[in-house]
Amino acid sequence: MKRRLFVKNVSSLGLAYTFVRNYTSSAVIRDSRIEVILDEPIATIQPEVYGHFAEHIGGVIYDGIWVGEQSKIPNVNGFRKDIIDHLLRIQPGSLRWPGGCFADSYNWKDGIGPMNTRPRRANFWINTPFLQKAPDGPSKYEPNHFGTDEFLKFCELIDTVPYLAANARTLPAQDLIDWVEYCNAPPGTTSYGDMRVANGRTDPYNVSLWGIGNESWGCGGDMIPEDYAEIFRRFTSFIPSFQTNLKLVAVGPSDGYNKRDLDWTRRLFTRLAEPSNSWTYIPDRIAGYSVHFYCGTAGESSINFTDDEWYQLLWQSDQMEKVITEHWDALGAFDLDRKIKLYVDEWGAWHKQKTEVHNTHLFGQTSTMRDALIAALSLDTFNRHADKVAVGNIAQLVNNLQSLFLTHEDRFAVTPNFHVFEMYKHHQNGQSVRVKFSAPVSSADKGLWGLNGSASLKGKTLYMTVVNPSLTEARETDIVIPGAKIQSVRTITFTEDDVRAHNNLKNPNAVKDPVEKIIESSNGQLTVQFPTASVNALILELE
Ligand code: AHR
């Protein structure tokens, strides 16, 4: 008997129904295969990997997140309601703040207490030529209306793990100790803890993730690795823990698609590993090693690129895999027990400044399906390396580099990146398992694979995500799971006829939502078609 799959469209799932290009084309050749190897587990995918980044830069905080309680823009305690509602949909794993470069110029004491008494300061980014044309306002002059309590309350509203970056350039170690105390000291124990109580928050926030500086080789102090090693040793010699498991993060390199700064990693750890009279081996104090990877751009702008530049940029972003494996290998010489994990706490595309929705939005860019595929293939890479990567923060949440949202005043739009995070959220806390992809390559000259992705298991539910980068070929693919019987399959497909399609504030619904379907299998065999230029999710219930 011929094996058949019955497909029915599901409109009750709340996702828009659209006809997917090439989805049923008879011209598609069955040329691809995905094998999931359930008995080769890699590690649990940490929710913090599905994290975000919000710096005091351009339109990220003011206009993007914070509008103030008196604003006519719908808000919850001063935070934009549209942002909160959409963040709750994607279950953000972590949120890094206040920078970025801004962090190493920020005094956290400016941002606490009554708002009308908080000082105003020049923002770290004020000298950039882009902002010279912008009106005076918070992108240039920091009003400090969004400070520690606002950030930590926002994290609670969106149910995410806060990740603070401490100033290691212009402030001494004492300010980090005071900040930890303000956030984590129980009421009645220390003056900074009591200051927090006086500012309206009794319970400690119990912040666990603390970065010691940011990009210390550049905006964070122009240091050489040996200088930063000295700072890290001194800052971390003593920090009160207040019953919170502090996870300290050391500044790592900034990598490009064509360079890995392994010299920083090796020199930093060589110096950190040098013995002193300390009772700890210094690398043992490090929970996370921060890695930044911006894949850059290809083409005129984020929305104007050739087909060649489509493949070029996807290839560039795919170099994330080398960034992870090469630094991991280098770290292995100093961390034999592999306790230090990689925190890829800034990543994404960095297009030319042209498509920002407002002239205060420094680095603002409008994302297309190309960015969606970059987000998807990067998250898949983190999943495949779940044993190495414990935190990830796409840069940045709103109105900036590869953002999930665009906002200005009362207008709001999601970008294609948002849909990817919504599709991929189910991987959080799943057991990453090995997957083998075999498919004709998409662009031989760029060396980009034909299909790639990741899979994770939770009980008997297998969650698989797959990217097809080809602009011309859908992939008819056999899915093989040795030793398992497939009971039911749900698919979510995100694709667009026009890969340059994008939402903006004038046209917030230009990009079609992902489409969800249920596929019923009568005999456990599965063949799925992945449309051109698509991000796909498969939810498989196994017997
Ligand atoms: O995300 C924008 C900037 O890029 C950050 O402030 C900095 O850390 C990086 O260079």
Account of the protein in words:
- The chain has eleven helices and 24 strands.
- It has helices at 81-90, 129-132, 148-158, 173-184, 191-198, 225-235, 262-272, 307-318, 320-332, 369-384, 416-424; strands spanning 5-9, 30-44, 51-53, 75-76, 79-80, 94-97, 121-122, 141-142, 161-166, 209-212, 247-255, 286-296, 341-349, 389-394, 405-408, 411-414, 431-438, 452-458, 461-468, 475-480, 486-494, 515-521, 526-530, 534-542.
- The strands form five sheets. It has a ten-stranded mixed β-sheet with strand order 1-22-21-24-19-18-17-2-20-23, with helices on one face. Strands 3-6-9-10-11-12-13-14 form an eight-stranded parallel β-barrel, surrounded by six helices. A two-stranded antiparallel ribbon has the order 4-5.
- A hairpin with a 2-residue loop joins strand 15 and strand 16 (411-414).
- The chain is globular and about 65 Å long.
- Residues 1-26 have low confidence and may be disordered.
- The structure holds alpha-L-arabinofuranose.
Instruction: Kindly report the average pLDDT value.
Output: 93
CATH architecture: Alpha-Beta Barrel
CATH level-1 class? Alpha Beta
Mass-distribution shape: globular
What oligomeric state best describes the polypeptide chains here?
Answer: single chain
Q: Which stretches of 5+ consecutive residues score pLDDT under 50?
A: 1-26
How would you sum up the major sheet? 10 strands, mixed
Bound molecules: alpha-L-arabinofuranose
Report strand %. 25-35%
Structural class: alpha/beta
DSSP E strands, number: 24
Count of helices?
Answer: 11
Question: What's the CATH superfamily, by name?
Answer: Glycosidases
Number of domains: 1
Helical amount:
10-25%
Rg from alpha-carbon coordinates: 23 Å
Looking at CATH, which topology would you report?
TIM Barrel
Strand order of the largest sheet: 1-22-21-24-19-18-17-2-20-23
Give the termini distance in whole angstroms. Answer: 22 Å
